[in-house]
Inverse folding.
């Protein structure tokens, strides 16, 4: 699909391409299909010669309100996520990713750049749970899920099967969360001050973002 977009872009008169990778992207191949495939897309777009900005988010705050997470928070007081207890994440709101993409269209400072974007705080799962507890008004506990169990849950939710078949998105999901959890330094931490040098956006804190949602209902 990336190659098709690149082919269509050539000679089209486009003045800029802003691509949201939807996840962390390393500066080298990792033998992780989801990440390495995005590097291929970035390369194809860059080769068009059209100025490109690659917006590379960390992990979306909006995952917390999805059907695989919010019911557990509301019904059981448990925030489950496939993050190791010590893994820090600069969680970012989807609305802020959109703001960064729009900002990239309004300046040339980020042209040709790979721009990691994240929220203003790097939080562990326990720290997210503390913020959930404060917003909801009752204790919420973080539960660190094994990446394979998390991916199997996702597969069951969508396909009805917990089997992690090779080549499926669910097997890939387990693999990249295992990667995140085993790095000496979290790849999911972003310094927003560095991002601000390229794009003038002030991302929401987790505390402010949580206030947007109704925590009396599981969905």
């Amino acid at each position: 699909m990336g190659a098709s977009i690149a082919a269509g872009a050539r000679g089209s008169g486009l003045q800029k391409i802003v691509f949201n990778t939807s996840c962390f992207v390393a500066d080298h191949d990792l033998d992780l299909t989801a990440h390495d495939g995005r590097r291929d897309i970035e390369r194809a777009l860059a080769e068009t010669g059209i100025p490109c900005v690659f917006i590379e988010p960390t992990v979306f705050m909006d995952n917390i309100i999805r059907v695989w997470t919010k019911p557990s928070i509301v019904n059981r007081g448990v925030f489950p996520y496939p993050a190791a207890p010590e893994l820090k994440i600069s969680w970012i709101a989807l609305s802020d990713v959109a703001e960064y993409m729009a900002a990239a269209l309004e300046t040339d400072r980020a042209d040709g750049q790979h721009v990691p974007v994240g929220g203003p705080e790097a939080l562990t799962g326990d720290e997210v749970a503390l913020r959930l507890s404060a917003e909801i008004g009752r204790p919420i506990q973080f539960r660190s899920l094994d990446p394979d169990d998390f991916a199997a849950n996702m597969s069951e939710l969508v396909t009805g099967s917990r089997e992690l078949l090779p080549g499926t998105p669910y097997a890939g999901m387990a693999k990249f969360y295992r990667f995140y959890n085993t790095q000496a330094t979290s790849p999911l931490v972003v310094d927003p001050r560095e991002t601000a040098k390229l794009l003038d956006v002030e991302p929401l804190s987790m505390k402010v973002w949580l206030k947007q949602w109704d925590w009396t209902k599981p969905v």
